[in-house]
Each structure stands twice: as C-alpha cells, then as structure tokens.
Amino acid sequence: MVAQTERSQLQVVGQRVVRKDGLDKLTGEALYVADINRPGMLAGRILRSPYPHARIRGIDTSRARQLRGVYAVVTADDTPKRGWGAFMPDQFPMAVGKVRYVGDEVAGVAAIDEETAEAALRLIEVDYEELPAVFDPEEAMRPGAPLIHDDRPNNVAVTIDVERGDVEAAFRRSDVVVEGVFNSHHQWHSSIETLGSVAEWSPSGKLTVWMNTQTLFMARYRIAGALGLRDGDVRIIQPAVGGGFGGKSCDDNNAMVCAVLAMKSGRPVKIINSREEEFLASRPRVPMKIYTKMGFRSDGAILAKQIRVIADNGAYSGKAPGIMGVAALRHDTCYRYSDVKTQAYLVYTNKVPTGAFRGFGNPSAEWAIEQTIDLGAEKLGLDPLEVLRLNAVEAGYVSPHGNEVRQGELKQCIDLVAEMMDWKRRRAEKKPNHGLGVGCTVHVSGKRHFGDYDGSSATIKMNEDGKVMIWSGEGECGQGPATVMCQIVAEELGVPIEDVEIARADTDQSTFCLGAFGSRLTYIAGNAVRNAASEVKKQILDMAAELLEANPADLECRNARIQVRGTPEEGRSVTTRDVARACLYRRGGRPVIASGSFDADSVLQNDVRYGNESGAFNFACQAAEVEVDPETGEVKIVQYAAASDCGTVINPVLAEGQVEGSIAQGIGYALTEGLAFDNGSPVNPNFHEYKLPSMADMPPLKAKFADSWDPSGPFGAKGLGELGMDPFAAVIANAVYDAVGVRITTLPITPEKVLRALEERRGAEGR
Amino acid sequence: MKKPVTLLVNGREHDLLLEPNRLLLDVLREELGLTGTKEGCSIGVCGACSVLVDGKVVSACLTFAIAVRDREITTLEGLSRDGALDPVQQAFLEVGAYQCGFCTPGQIMAARALLNQNPHPTQQEVVDWMSGNLCRCTGYYKILEAVLAAAGPHPDPLPEGEGILARG
C-alpha cells in the first residue's frame, strides 16, 4: 500500500496544528473590514428600492447633495451602465431604468458619518412607476406574466433538458415507481459579519478595495468590468473574513456602490451592510421546487430517475445558473443507474436574487431525491440504509453525465454510519414517536465552471533565515485553508509548521486564483502550493548538494535539516537556513523563490452538460434518530451521525470543524431558519425572527472520516467543506416520517407543519 | 448635547465627550479603537458585542456608554494580562473553538462571565449560558469543549456517553 506507507511518514499533514490566525483572532487583533479605517474615510450608505418591480422615471439627488457633510451621491448615471454577473450580465451596480426587487440598489451616498449619510438617503427623490410583479416561479413562467427582463421570454433565465438512456423504458422495467414534489426555501448565510467594503481611489487611477470576499480575483474581474476599469487597476485586499459560506463571492453590489462612491468623492469610503440589508440584498440560497419520479427493482436497485426542477432565480442571476445545473445533475454521481431524465428551469421573480450557499445545488436536490429513495425503500419494505448501500457508487464508476469517480469511499461512509448509529439495533428497538433517517451525498473538489480552468497557483519564497512565506490569492474566510496550505508546504519542504507562514490574500501580490467555492481549496490550492513548494525544494536541495558534496537526488529534508537519505541523524547535514543564506550570499546569488500551479484533471461540461466536472469526488453518509412530540410537532434530534470521505484529513481540528459547522447550518436549513415573504420582501428580516441554531439546538453527534486516499490530491486529500450540509435536511425528513408517519415536503420542517400533517392524518383516519 | 463621561475600560480611565445616546459598542470601537468587540445583529440577539461590565456580560450594542460610566468595563483586549492568555482564550486556542473568529470575542467574554460566577459549570449550565452567543461556523461543539476545558475538571463529571460531547 503506497498510500499507507506515504501517510505513515507524514510529519505535519494529519496533525492537529493550531491555526495560523489563532492568536490574532483570540485577542481581538485580527482586523475585519469594519475594523479598517483610512485617513479621511467617509461612511457610505445605499438607497434601496421599496418596490418589487418599478420603472424609475427620474432620480433627484440635488437636496441630498446639498446636505452638509455629504461628499458624493451616486446613481447609475455615475457608472458606465455595464451589466455584470457570474454567468449572465443581467445586473448593474445600481439600477438602470428599472428596479426588480425590494432592496435593489438605486443610489449611494458618502458622507462624513453614518447619520449624515442616512439623512441624505432620505433626501433623494426617486420617481417610481410601479409595475405588476410576480413572486412565484411557476406563475412567472406562465404566458402573460409580468416580464422582469425584456430579453427573457417567460422569465426563464436558463433551461436544462437532458436525458441519458431511456427513462420511460426503465420505468416500465421497474417493480416500484414512486413520485414526490419537494420545496426548498431561502436560507441566508447569516455570517455573523455582514458584507462590507472599504474602497479607495487614487489619482493615478488605481482602485483599492478591502472587502470580505471569498473570491478576490473574481471580485476584481467583476468590479473592473462593471466600472470600466482594467483588471490590473483594481486591487482587492482580503482582511480577516467573518464567515463566507458562499455569501461573500462578490455576486452582490456592496463593493460596487462603495467603489463608485470612492471614485466620485475622491475619499476612502466604507460600507458595511446592516443585518436588515443582509436579508434584503445579499444572495441567499436558491429555493427550488423539485418534482421527482424514481423506479426501483424489487431488491432496491434504482433503475430510473426523472426530475423536474423549478429554481427561483430572484431578480438577477449571479451563480444560480451553476447552482441549478448542480441540482439537476450532480446527484447522479452518488448511485449507480444509467437511465435518467432532467428538466430544469431557472426562473426570474421579483424577489431577492439568489446565489451560492454551502452545498450549492446539492442540498435542494438531496432534499428531494434522498426523500424519494426513502419512499421507494418503504414501498419495497426494505431498510433504506441497505438500499443506499446497494446503489452506492464505487471507484471506477462513470456517471451518466460523464463524472468519473476515480476514487471514493461512499460504501465505507454508509458502513461507518451504520456502526456509529448501531443502526440495526436502533431500528429493531425503536421507541414510539422515535424514527431513523439516512441519506448520502456526493460533492466535488472544485468544479470546472468559469471558463476551461479549475486551477490555482502560488508563489513561495524561503527567507534567508529559512522561514517560508506563501503567497496565494485563494484567501481565508475562517474554514482554515491558510493553515492547511501551510501544513502542506511544511510537509513538502520538510520544515516544521512554525517555519511556514502565508501572506494575506491580495490581488496585487499573488498570482491568479479563483477563490473559495466548490470545496476546492484543500484539493486545488493544496496541489498548487505543493507544486510550488516542490520547486522551492529543488532549489534548496541543489544548493545543499553543493554544500554537502552529494547528489541532490540522495538528499532529504526533515525538520529543516538536509542530509543524505539513510545516514544517521547526527551525520553531516545542513539546515534550511544555511542553505537559504548560501543561495543568496555568493556571486550571482539569487533568492529561493518559485511559483507552482495546478489545474484539475476535469473538463468543462459541454452544451449537453456532459463531462467530468471535477478532479476528485467526495462523499458522505449521515443518519439521525429523532423524537417527534405528537402534541407540539417539535422535532428533537436524539442522535446524529456523519461519515465523510474527504481523502486524507490534513488537519483533524479543521476537518471536524467543517462537519460540525455543517451540521449546525443543516439544523437551521432543516428546522429553524426561514422568513415569510410579503409583496416579494422577507418579513421581519432580523435575528429575532430568523432563528439561527444556538448551542442549545445541537444534538449528540458522532462523526468519523473514511479511511481514504485520493492519489490526485495533495497527500491524498480531497474537498470537505460542503459535504456535511448536503443530505442533512432529507435525513431529518426521513427520520420524522419514520417516527410519526408524516412526510414534510416543504422546508423548513417547523413544528406547525408537523402538527398540521399529524392532524390531517388523524382527520383522515377518523373518517 | 455632548456630555463629559469617564469610562473605565480595561483598567484605564478615558475622559470622553459623548452624545447621551451613543452606544457603548460604537464608543469602544470608534473612540477607543478597541475593535475586538464586534457588531453582528445590532439588536442584542447574536452576542458578538458581549463585553463585561463589573464582571457581568452585557451586549454593548444595547448599552448606552453613559449608563456604564465609572463602572469597570472589560473587552477582549483587556482579558490577557502581561502577555499571558486568559484560561478561556487558551482553551479556545488549544481546542480550536473558532473558525472565522468574528463571534469569538463575544463567546470568550460570555464564557469568562460564566466562569466568574460559576467556576465549575455543568455541561448543561454551559449550554444554557452560551446559547446567547451565536456562531455560524463551528457548530458549537468545540466552543462547549473549550469552555469546559477552561473550567477544568468538574467535581461531578457526566457519566460516560452522556451529553452532546459524547462522540464515541
């Protein structure tokens, strides 16, 4: 076993290394965007549309501009009016001609303080002509519905229509066919830190933006594009970021308005979203209505799957086209079947634009599909866990859409969950109103999404004291990739973790990186920094060979000391410090520095959505025992178990943190989080009404990682960040059904819904 | 009308001129440069702005600065003494009870307040107390573990397999 041998020799990878940003964060020294102050800085505020759909007949900013302390008032007229967006350029930094949701950016003000800026907002007079609005995606698709974007007939932004094999024939072959309709809802990222930016414009034509973005270079590209600047004239600096989860991917207009205000006023400007703005105008999870139909053989084998997805785009597209694509197709890489049909429609509505949130399209798809499999298992009288196990993919599998599972441990994850839950015993000894649920997921380790590239690059230097510095533009939002990258580099170079540090991500300092999304950093950026470190290592070993009069191929570096492989510890050696100094201090000396890059072995899916989307697939299985109170409808999680296959665990503390955090967000998604909408706008957009799970909501959790090694990953590692979120809601719904026999098909699973379903069933039984 | 106010923060007296409706959170962050205290929800729900006033935890986003004049205010920056971390900070570091770090100052201050009045809380007492501090990253398990670690061994420990930290 090459993998086992290699893993047993690892020094830094696999260790519970303390985070590189630990002390700064624990002492209050870490600077987040709201903590950044620049000389002469102004407070920026944004005027947002109060209407879900209206034409702007005119904007009078004259009174606002005359207010004492106001430095700039901007509207779309202060911009080149260029559309922008991750996949479709359908939004503007500020509304051009029309507003399309309550919260749409209309104007911006920069003033001496927040109070003055707020007062100025109230002095801006906008002449709106209200237009009929549409909020339900299926209504929006009907002929005669109000048109939200003139060039999008039926309000459909994207259509997917894919069939592989012959799904009708497969349904005919099936012993059991089940169907369902499942609704998922808006979920807000609710990072405790809201979106924010500080923008500064220099007379030389350089725009510098400190922003809490997960994707610096994408932010640079979008800001430059929308504002008519060259990419290189925009500098994005990432401060400490207070949580991302997909919500800080520069798909919203906070930094856009901030930049326009800085350019117009000539002064630095800071805009921090209020919590209310975060609900109104960030980019929450894409709600979907999914119609499912699946066919099974009597032994539980899945023979056919057909789904129809209606995805609520909101007013603008952002990343929703990619998210719907994932919901439509990704799950067909989890189980073995070849006959599958998917129709999916991304539909504009006059609501907040939706976007990327941990799991991307997976949680909505899993919510529907993992429940449908549960329906099938029940109809067949089979243990759902055994049905999942029977169908689970293994290494070597190629999905109907071309995804290549070169390595993967889904079955092991299912077995781990069965063991952690003591599944068979729990099933046999089930108490009244208790139920068990199970579900699986497949995720990517980066997805080829934005052009034909899913790579990363990094530069590494070794200082003359032997200390190593990494420049990567991927960034850190709290998940821990900075520490993971340091561990990988320390391992590759053979130096202690204390000898490696990583610079703050900054587009002027590092090479191009796509950023944090798609569970890509450990795998993609990890490979890139490892390759860069490997180049640095060559330089060191060459010089060490000269100093030791040895062949570089015979040398190894361990604990910052280089010596001939196989010689005793006390044998002749040089330190990395000696070598780094020797590289510099000689005639023709040069620093130890190298860049490295990596691009995943995947393909950009073609126009019929075929192709291997990722270099490595990661898997998870989760199960729950719940207790449902038949009097109140309240769902209590008695025990939860999560098994994850992320290849090698680079840092167990961080990996556990990803799983544990996902479970908490899963609880929010499944049980507690949601807001009612009124006239297209969320009601009570605050943390009183929108219930984030607290410590008291956490269940007993057992979590394990599969014994897994992906040879294409850095030291065998794959992605992990999103896995834990994906199947959670379906697991709970399946468990609730098992407990009390009612199936909740619309998220979140509130006590009211459970109680109503129980009462309906009691009513039906009484008749 | 601004009023002269003396605030005692982290052992130092600060003479300030403040509007009576100025929030403690804004005064700490903007007047005193103590940006370790964070704003998360602005309505006293999330706990990111937790600071200690006379050793008890308060939400700085709901507290007028003038109302805590001459009281002993402690922020995260005042917790470590002479370069040594407070046991709560040390436990957070060792357990890894933080990710993005934004809620962390409030979590640490809330935990400190708990341990001030109850040096050996049970697991359930920690859960009840800390449920006023929201975290979106960690799922709370490591925060719970860290607070218990900071308190040290409990005289009456939970039986094996009990509580939400029984991961086995």
Summarize the structure.
The complex is a heterodimer of chains A (767) and B (168). By secondary structure, chain A is α+β, with helices and mostly antiparallel strands. In chain B, helix 2 (87-95) crosses helix 5 (141-151).
Characterize the structure shown:
The complex is a heterodimer of chains A (767) and B (168). Chain A is of the alpha+beta class and 767 residues long. Chain A is built from 20 helices and 30 strands. In chain A, a hairpin with a 5-residue loop joins strand 13 and strand 14. The model of chain A has no long low-confidence stretch (mean pLDDT 97). Chain B is elongated, with a radius of gyration of 17 Å.
The general outline of chain A is globular
Strand content of chain B: 5-15%
Chain pair sharing the greatest interface: A-B, 59 and 58 residues
Unreliable segments of 5+ consecutive residues of chain B: none
- Uncertain runs of chain A with pLDDT below 50, 5 residues or more? none
Largest sheet of chain A: 7 strands, mixed
Largest sheet of chain B: 5 strands, mixed
Question: Which tags fit this structure?
Answer:
heterodimer; A: 767 residues; alpha+beta; seven-stranded mixed β-sheet; five-stranded mixed β-sheet; 20 helices; 24% strand; B: 168 residues; 5 helices; 5 strands; 30% helix; 15% strand; elongated
Q: Could you outline the blueprint of secondary structure elements for this entry?
A:
The complex is a heterodimer of chains A (767) and B (168).
Chain A: H1 2-8, H2 22-27, E1 42-48, E2 54-60, H3 62-66, E3 70-74, E4 98-99, E5 105-111, H4 114-123, E6 125-130, H5 137-141, E7 156-164, H6 167-173, E8 176-183, E9 196-202, E10 206-211, H7 216-227, E11 234-237, H8 254-265, E12 269-272, H9 275-281, E13 288-296, E14 302-314, H10 320-329, E15 339-348, H11 362-380, H12 384-391, E16 397-398, E17 404-405, H13 410-421, H14 423-428, E18 434-444, E19 455-462, E20 468-472, H15 481-493, E21 500-502, H16 521-548, E22 555-558, E23 561-564, E24 573-575, H17 576-584, E25 592-599, E26 617-628, E27 635-645, H18 652-672, E28 677-678, E29 681-682, E30 701-705, H19 728-740, H20 751-766
Chain B: E1 3-9, E2 12-18, H1 24-31, E3 50-53, E4 56-59, E5 72-74, H2 87-95, H3 104-117, H4 123-130, H5 141-151
Parallel strand pairs in B: 1-5
Antiparallel strand pairs in B: 1-2, 3-4, 3-5
